[in-house]
Amino acid sequence: MKRNKNKNANQKRTRQQQERQARFNNPVTANDILIDFNAAGRLQGLTHGAGRVHVQGITIDDPRARLLDDGIFMTPKDDGGWMIQSSIADVPALVPNQHPMEIFARSIEKAFGVDKPLFNYKFLQSCISLQQGEKRPAVTFTFVLDADLNLQSCSIERTVFENLKQCNDNDIVRELAKGDADVKRWTDLGHRLHEKRTNDMVQICNNLAVNDNIQPASAPEFPPRPGYEGTDLVHEIMRMTNLAAAEYFVDNNLPAPFKSAQGFFKVLHVSKDFNFDLECNRIALDVIETIIRTSPPYAKISSPMQKYRDFLGLKIMTRHLDGKTVQLNDAKEVSRLTTNFNQAATNQDHTTQPGWHVTWANHRAEQDTTSPHFADERNPATDIGALRKECSDRRMKMPQMAERLLLVNGVDIVMVALKCNQTVTWAAHYDATTALNMAAKRMMRQMKPQTPGAAPVNSPAP
């Protein structure tokens, strides 16, 4: 009996070894790949050896997050500016070049979402994730901003990152309620960074609409999103990090998987005129394409444990920081990824095609002729109210209105277009009512008779 038990145990062990070997040869998940190198020894050498500066910071992630890609720290300056340190987990420092883990990550790059690690989970958690109280290899971007949050300088170096505290948005909200001065300054910084970026985008749109320098009568309030202060702060700092990485690639003539498509639009409100709505869609796409075309390149590196393109970009950058050349395999992968991204992004939007009529008809069936967003449309004290009165006095048709939400570079901008007879004007702002009244001002200017010798009014379309 004992002999049979031993035989069965040996057979079970043999079968398990064969299954492990089969998974190693044909991995289905990242966890099927064996760690066949001294990961702990590599980590010890990187975090306690010479050549890496020690930095500290915090992480702000979802409460359920177990793998942490990035850490931040913000220090106010005496002149009202800020020094911001953004640290990214240095995954390429611990994954041997062309190891089966890297090859597997490359092969399933598109299959996993952002919440699925591309490498062996235990390896990431024990050696790479920026866990609280641990020292881990990182790449740190140090930004110096002036009092108006304009970038003064940026430096990049390989570091050892120590996580002082692992936070989430609920923690941030609790600390704000307690009156924590540092947390209040940090979250205000995130809000100001987003507000500045949004206002810059509004100004670009305003300049594209028509060169008449029409500005809102008063700047509307820009309230923060309560409960998301930590997420917003991390989002803004990571955008700065990715833009700085892209600039590093360009300045040093390095290949990088740049992602050129950064915007799209949503239909919020349609008019009674299909052709006018189609024209609004074309204007919206033109605005987005113009902004993208004139924007700096963008390359993500801030999720190297979860996105292969981020891992690849960080690998190329850190090799260059170490004085090494880009490997041919990595350059080929950059070309493949960039081609895939941009082919997917250049598909013609269906909202510029006649087939959009079905979508338009559905929107028309769901809406009244007046947008629910504009409560003051008939108020004569407003610009849109004055325009409606002018149309009535001239026995013209009431202005038709269409509304689009432009999403460009992580910013939401509302575009409102108006049509009176055959004249179309539009304006864009982060506040829908403000955009409506700016477009009405432009329409009133278009409707005024030209004085002798006056320059013709510019076309509203970009």
UniProtKB/TrEMBL annotation:
Q: One Pfam annotation, family name?
A: RNB
Q: Where along the chain is composition biased (Basic residues)? A: 1-15
Q: Which domain of life is it from?
A: Bacteria
Molecular function (GO) terms for this protein are: RNA binding; RNA nuclease activity
InterPro entries given in the database record? NA-bd_OB-fold, RNase_II/R
Query: What are the residue boundaries of the RNB domain, all occurrences included?
Result: 52-323
- List the residue ranges of the region (Disordered): 1-25
Q: How is this protein named in the record?
A: RNB domain protein
Q: What is the lineage of its organism?
A: Bacteria, Pseudomonadati, Bdellovibrionota, Bdellovibrionia, Bdellovibrionales
